[in-house]
Amino acid sequence: MMVRLGSGGRRRTIRGPWTTHRTDLTARIHLTDLAPGREYDATVWFEDHDGTKSAPLPLAFRTAPIHAAAQSIVWSGDTNGQGWGIDRARGGMTTYRSMLDVRPDLFIHVGDTIYADEPMVETRTVEEDGSTWRNELTAEVMVVAETLADFRGRHRYPLRDDNVRDFYSAVPSVVQWDDHETCNNWWPGEIIDDERYTERRADVLAIRGRRAWQEYQPVPVKRLVPRDGDGFVPTRIYRRIPRGQHLDLFLLDMRSYRGPNPDVDPAVVRNRLQVGLLGTEQEDWLVRELRASTATWKVISVDQPLSAPPSRLYDLDGVSNGDPGRPLGREPEIGRILAAIKRHGIKNVVWITADVHYTAAYHYAPDRATFTDFEPFWEFISGPLMCSPFTTHDEELDRTFGPEPVFSHGKDEDYDWKVAPRPDNQHFGQLDLAASGELTVRLYDGAGTVLWQRTLEPEPLR
To answer: Which of 63, 78, 103 is the last residue of a domain?
Structure first.
């Protein structure tokens, strides 16, 4: 792998690793000594032992600033779910094109980068108009992913789409994972009760799923596959990403350290403490890093919303337990974080996520909540990128932390896998940060139409 990097008239060539089948012919180069806040252009190609070169691929990106600079960040999640793939007659995965048109400096994929557990078929009838959706198929997307080859094929699939390739060649990205990179609602130690699988140990599937995810996503692992390991690199994937004077990003991992999803009588679940979604070490790390941050805004990116109602009575997967009372189940973990933010005087904290296949702006305040030991804050939700849209169910939000649905946009009726992705039912969000420190949040549909926006003024830091 070779890269020619240029900026301001200066150019240098960097020799990277050899691609091999051990990493499914993927490769990465860790660029260092880049100037902050600068535009770079790059050309990537591959070169064989005899000097034979592949066709060059041009790329462009801007490095993160260190001072008070304007910047734009988009986020979304949920790619190729419910069996919806690339239909070239419909333009392919066009939400990626709409995000590119916003000209962001960074993209955050907040999880469900693939749907390894949801196979595709060649044709589907679109419920709204009776037309035929024609999926472009590969062998790996037609089955639930169990083998490493299956998971790798799932990650290759979106890259067949021109919109996706054009977007990633122009916009740097940071990526999180959730459940569908492995299988629906999985937790460490689970034995999956699904007859489609021959391998039902979630831990085994997660090892294979995370290895493929690490190979195909820009994940900061120094050694992609350890010489004596299985590819499940133990290095944590939660991290803080500084973006200059006004912004620190905190990307969390709600999947790797969680306790079992409860699968008992809901009346019992609501009144029994459970292991949270982050684990003690990650929770402590987050509070410590928030306290240390001197950035104006602290944006916490999570792969699941804080108050979305449970989608089922059993196998409760998220933060909410559907009970508006005091924090129980997994909620105490979030309560401790919110209380620590208040106790330590941490200002200007915003949460972003996707996962639930709609877009929304929820404002949280203690005067509306059962749990009151926190300062008011915003949570912004936006997705999916290429899935069926889901219903918002604002009236069913868990009121423990006092969410107010200021805006939401999703499917009008109940959840239905038959509803096809359309530009007007897909979503992404934007954080548009001014050099002055003002943060404008915009929520878009997949066509690039602004559905809602609000400019947030930062509170003075202590």
So the answer is: 63
Residue with tokens 């902050």: 36
List the beta bridge partners of residue 61. 40
Backbone angles phi, psi at 228, to 5 degrees: -115, 20
Query: Are 224 and 213 a contacting pair, CB within 8 Å?
Result: no
Between CA 265 and CA 270 the distance in angstroms is 9
Domain count, the chain: 2
Q: What is the pLDDT of residues 171-229, one digit of tens each?
A: 999 999 999 999 999 999 999 999 999 999 999 999 999 999 999 999 876 655 555 55
- What's the pTM value of the predicted model, to 2 decimals? 0.95
User: 3-state DSSP call for residue 282?
Assistant: helix
> How many CB atoms are located within 10 Å of the residue 268 CB?
9
* Structure-block tokens of residue 193: 């009760």
Q: Does residue 159 share a domain with residue 55?
A: no
My answer on whether 15 and 118 are in the same domain is: no
- pLDDT tens for each residue of 359-382: 999 999 999 999 999 999 999 999
Contacts (Cβ under 8 Å, ≥6 apart) of 3: 13, 14, 16, 29, 31, 42, 43, 44
Is 461 domain-assigned?
A: no
Domain that holds residue 392: 67-456
Average pLDDT, integer, range 66-71: 96
Instruction: Please give the DSSP secondary-structure letter assigned to residue 386.
Output: B
Looking at the structure, tell me whether residues 169 and 31 fall in a common domain.
no
Last residue of a domain, one of 42, 63, 84: 63
Q: Roughly what angle, to the nearest 10 degrees, separates helices 331-343 and 280-292?
A: 20
DSSP secondary structure letters along 217-277: S----SSSS-TTS-S---S---EEEE-STTEEEEE--SSTT--PPP-S-HHHHTTS----S
Token pair in block for residue 181: 């990179």
